[in-house]
Design brief:
five-stranded mixed sheet, alpha+beta, 13 helices, seven-stranded mixed sheet, binds glycyl-adenosine-5'-phosphate, about 450 residues
Length: about 450
């Protein structure tokens, strides 16, 4: 058997549309650039991914979850540095008006779009935050921003959570939510979009202990990606050198994934010092100091280790990694999405061989029973071969086939997505079989 990995993003975009994972936003109006809608299978995959993250982060002794508002007090963004510093340098081609990030092109050369030479404007900073108005009066005092990261909702709630949950250092706060950035060069499907979801966790530690916790979180986060089924050869660390270290960080590293267009950041793990809490303390005038009862009631601002992963970007890596083209050009060619079973949008497909002879009724009974525990699909239309191919393409780990023998021996055939091996299992043992496979 031959096997090819994903070669080009367009193959994946095509599959995602054809099978109901991801559609272009507002497609009937010609689409809205860099915005995407998750379809029925995409939304299941995304929920499973978020669930895995949420469980890995908050089903532990030392991390609480929150869900902060997207709109925050505008002073938050002044304090965090986003109003003054969250910008990309931008140049325009005076000839064709195309806009570029200065660091993405060589301005001494011709415009990549129209070929004009010496046509670029001086570079200027372009703030990436989306502005909107709060309330009925449109003036500068009513300007609010769509949050460009979820992290600040955690920082401003640090004391609320520490006190209500009676937390002692070290402890963390986790959040999943939408973030918005008016990116100059979005693209590569859901890799860089203007609206996306982040899964972020801030871990508050005693100053001086940050490197130890940074190492612990690096290991935890690497394992999480492997647990999603990503192959280790497609992952690498990309530490930030002194030059590209953010002004608030004393150490940072990214986990990168090898996408079809090249290596790209999937998650950042940052040691953010006490920068954010200090800034919020300054700008709000509120005392955010932590009292360390274990150290003679010393008061200080905790340091922070942040783990920040893009949900959509992680999902894109999972889609890319799962994609396999087997036996290309052969009669038995198939595309199969080898999702980790815990992430697969549909866990089991129930397929009666034919509609007639009582098979459809028996299959429907099995389907209703399995659907209670597993997201299942019942499919009776088309040849069994075509139905298997569809389930392969949407990554369903198991197909349960009901044939005429099933009526006699009360058994069904279970087909394994990856090996295509078939096992005969009695209907009464079906749930035990699946429980074992999905544990
Ligand atoms: N709080 C830290 C923070 O936001 P970041 O490196 O700017 O750090 C973290 O973003 C993660 O969010 C990235 O590693 C990426 O996975 C995701 N991300 C950032 N910008 C994105 C965009 N425009 N589209 C999709 N995902 C994005």
């Amino acid at each position: 058997m031959s096997e090819e990995n994903l070669q080009s993003m367009s193959d994946l975009v095509g599959l995602c549309k054809r099978r109901g994972f991801i559609f272009q936003s507002s497609e009937v109006y010609g689409g809205l650039a860099s915005c995407w809608d998750y379809g029925p299978l995409g939304v299941e995959l995304k929920r499973n991914l978020k669930d895995r993250w949420w469980k890995s982060m908050t089903f532990r002794d030392d991390v609480d979850g929150i869900d902060a508002s997207i709109l925050m007090h505008p002073k938050v963004w002044k304090a965090s540095g986003h109003i003054d510093g969250f910008s990309d340098p931008l140049v325009d081609c005076k000839n064709c008006k195309e806009r570029y990030r200065e660091d993405n092109i060589d301005t001494t050369k011709a415009c990549p779009k129209c070929g004009a030479k010496g046509s670029f404007t001086e570079s200027r900073d372009f703030n990436l935050m989306f502005k909107t108005q709060m309330g009925p009066v449109e003036d500068t005092s009513s300007t609010v921003y769509l949050r460009p990261e979820t992290a600040q909702g955690i920082f401003v709630n640090f004391l609320n959570i520490q006190s209500t949950m009676r937390r002692k250092l070290p402890f963390g706060i986790a959040q999943i939510g939408k973030a918005f950035r008016n990116e100059i060069t979005p693209g590569n499907f859901i890799f860089r979009t203007r609206e996306f979801e982040q899964m972020e966790m801030q871990y508050f530690v005693k100053p001086g202990s940050q490197m130890k916790f940074m190492e612990e979180w690096k290991e935890t986060r690497w394992k999480w990606h492997l647990g999603n089924g990503l192959r280790e050869k497609n992952l690498k660390w990309e530490p930030h050198g002194e030059k590209n270290l953010a002004h608030y960080a004393d150490a940072a590293t990214d986990i990168e994934y090898k996408f079809p267009m090249g290596w790209g950041e999937m998650e950042g793990i940052h040691s953010r010092t006490d920068f954010d809490l200090k800034k919020h303390q300054e700008h709000s005038g509120k005392n955010l100091l932590y009292t360390d009862q274990a150290d003679g009631n010393k008061k200080y601002l905790p340091y922070v280790i942040e783990t920040s992963v893009g949900c959509d970007r992680s999902l894109l890596a999972i889609l890319c990694d799962a994609y396999r083209l087997e036996n290309k050009g052969e009669k038995d060619e198939r595309v199969v999405m080898k999702f980790h079973p815990s992430l697969a949008p549909i866990k089991v497909a129930i397929l009666p061989l034919v509609k007639k002879g009582g098979l459809a009724e028996l299959a429907a009974t099995i389907y209703r029973d399995l659907q209670v525990d597993y997201k299942s699909e019942y499919d009776v239309s088309g040849s069994i071969g075509k139905r298997y191919r569809r389930q392969d393409e949407i990554g369903t780990p198991f197909c349960v086939t009901i044939d005429f023998d099933s009526l006699e021996d009360q058994s069904v055939t279970i087909r394994d997505r990856d090996s295509m091996e078939q096992t005969r299992v009695s209907i009464s043992k079906l749930k035990d079989f699946l429980k074992e496979k999905f544990k």
